[in-house]
Amino acid sequence: MRFKVLIIFLFVYNLGFSQNKISYTFSLQEAVTFALDSNYSAINAKRDVLAALKQKWETTATGLPQITAGVDYRNNLKQPVTLIPSEFSGGAPGTFTPVIFGVPQTMNANATLNQLLFDGSYIVALQASKTFLEFSKNIEQKTSSVIRKEVVNVYGNVLLSRENIDILESNKATLEKNLKETTEIFKNGLAEEEDVEQLQITLSNIEIQLNNSKRVLELSSQLFNITLGIDVDTSVILTDNLDRLIAENIDLQILSEELSLENNMDYKIAYNFTEQRRLELKLEKYKALPTLSAFVNYGTQANSDTFTFFDTNQQWFQSSVAGVSLRVPIFSSLGRRAKTQRAEIAFDQAKTDFKEAIQQIKLQVKSAKNNYQFTIEKYENAKNNLALAKRIETKNQIKFFEGLSSSFELRQAQLQLYTAQQEFLQSMLDVITNKAELERILNITN
Length: 446
Description:
By secondary structure, the chain is an alpha+beta fold. The protein is built from nine helices and eight strands.
């Protein structure tokens, strides 16, 4: 019986432990989709939009009916004394009699309804709150596009680090085999000691690079987790590989895509900024208009020598008033005019910045297309160079072991191969990331 209880306990413990140990599996597109909801910047960008919505309603509410209510209780611990001429009560002329007016305790309750009828500043504020909401939404969309690019970048860096480790381990295994064979040949007196030393130097460098690549992989994986908004120590499996991503991201047709300024996020944000400056100018102009508001007040008051305000026989006296308030700005010693002129200058500056932003966006598109085309050409060249470097290194290995070339020539061929391998991997990543940057500027979402 005790044995069965122990088995059940261990089963439940292991089940709970396995449930706490979370792991994820992502393709590149799945990683992008996940990050758009869980990335820290994406979460805060959504909160900014929600805050803008609340601010819009806050602005709208200032022009809707406002009701305030209050209750005041007063207890005159020492009532004020008023002196009146004594002759009013039959006393001697020229003398005064102290008199206390009213009762010690007073309570009154009132409620006031205020309604704004016209205010030019309120009209502009409504327009500004709408513009600010659009601005927040555009910032959120730009944040999403930047996150897409960042996820592609970090996803590709993790894959590159893993591919690099595989290549370095393969190179290390080949070098270890060459070193072992060369050492045996040297022991038999058929090779020079320098041949062994050259291979030892190359192997030592490869081992250092391999150890560093493993550390880089760990850091790249943690950066990937942070970009997705998950714990850095969480286990993540990536299902895509560089070959598959290269096949999906070499698309020369995108180079013919035309720029639609209205879809570019930087254009939208620059336009929002210009609109904000225009509304600020409009606000200063509208401040010269009169404001009109109405109010209704209702109150009730009770007086007593003692605290009897909650008694049923307590007498209360009602009062009510309604009115309209008109405020007309007449003269501000030219201060209002100076503010309007300053807002007009700011608006002109914003329009100039907007024109510059358009030109910058056009230049960004051309630059992104050029970089993308260049990385494709660089990738094709790196692929050809890698094939050539492999053949050269293989030929030099054969020549070296046949005694037709020196260890120095073999080492040069090996270093050329290792360089070609690194350039090939980097060119693959460059194609993927530059495609993502071009899609971001053109606002193309797969």
